[in-house]
């Protein structure tokens, strides 16, 4: 029984712990304000769509603009982290966002954007 329980926990935990960096973005936060966090989520979505498609200008696409309005529906993981500021070495709070890969691919299809561009091949 204990082995079954451990196997079940591993099956649930491992896929989320091993999420692909292709569908992940780390965005610096200015402060903890709700508007700043929502803007960071949208910025993370654009960063991931850019990375996955290999296209630099994705934000002007109507399908992408629609996805930004429902950004919370695309998020599979959300958390906070810290990164070192390059100029003074101070730690800066970041929003760590993981997106649902199937939903990202669906937006790319709707937008007529490629999947697996040059940027995506680096991951």
Features of this protein?
123 residues, alpha+beta, three-stranded antiparallel beta sheet
Please give a structural write-up.
With 123 residues, this protein is of the alpha+beta class. The chain has one domain. It is 45% helix and 20% strand. The chain has helices at 2-17, 34-53, 62-69, 101-111; strands spanning 24-28, 75-84, 91-99. The chain has a three-stranded antiparallel beta sheet with strand order 1-3-2. Strand 2 (75-84) and strand 3 form a beta hairpin. Helix 3 packs antiparallel against helix 4 (101-111). The radius of gyration is 16 Å and the shape is globular. The model is unreliable at 4-18 (pLDDT under 50).
Largest sheet data: 3 strands, antiparallel
- What portion of the residues fall into strands of 2 or more residues? 15-25%
Order of helices and strands: HEHHEEH
- Low-pLDDT residue intervals, each spanning 5 or more residues: 4-18
- Give the integer mean of the pLDDT values: 81
Percent in helix: 40-55%
What's the structural blueprint in terms of helices and strands?
Blueprint: H1 2-17, E1 24-28, H2 34-53, H3 62-69, E2 75-84, E3 91-99, H4 101-111
Antiparallel strand pairs: 1-3, 2-3
Helix pairs in contact: 3-4
């Amino acid at each position: 029984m204990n082995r079954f329980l451990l196997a079940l926990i591993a099956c649930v935990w491992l896929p989320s712990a091993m999420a692909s960096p292709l569908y992940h973005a780390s965005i610096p936060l200015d402060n903890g304000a709700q508007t700043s966090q929502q803007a960071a989520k949208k910025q993370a979505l654009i960063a991931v769509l850019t990375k996955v498609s290999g296209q630099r200008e994705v934000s002007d696409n109507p399908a992408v603009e629609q996805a930004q309005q429902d950004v919370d529906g695309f998020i599979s993981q959300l958390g906070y982290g810290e990164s070192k500021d390059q100029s003074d070495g101070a730690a800066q709070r970041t929003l760590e966002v993981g997106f649902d890969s199937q939903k990202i691919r669906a937006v790319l299809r709707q937008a007529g954007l490629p999947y697996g561009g040059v940027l995506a091949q680096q991951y």
